[in-house]
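To illustrate the input format used throughout this study, we show a single complete record. The first block contains the structure-token representation of the backbone; no residue identities are included at this stage. The design step must infer an amino acid for every position from geometry alone.
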């Protein structure tokens, strides 16, 4: 979770959440994206964020490895 906090803590706090509360919300209410999922990862998306659950890392099975991406368009 530290990499999620490093990259996305400010955006998540702007939405009024703490990271440790937000990720479970996306997991619970996000939509499974089967076309973006495969034998190595599961992809869940909400309207503004994506959560990736890695099932394998460096070729080895893992319990969970989470990564999150901000899907809001950023001003240029």
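Output of the design step:
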């Amino acid at each position: 979770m530290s990499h999620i906090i490093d990259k996305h803590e400010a955006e998540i706090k702007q939405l009024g959440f703490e990271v440790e509360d937000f990720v479970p919300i996306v997991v619970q209410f996000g939509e499974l994206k089967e076309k973006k999922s495969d034998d190595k990862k599961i992809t869940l998306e909400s309207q503004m964020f994506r959560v990736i659950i890695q099932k394998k890392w460096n070729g080895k099975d893992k319990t969970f490895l989470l990564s999150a991406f901000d899907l809001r368009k950023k001003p240029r």
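Structural context for interpreting the output: The chain has a mean pLDDT of 79. The first helix runs from residue 2 to 14.
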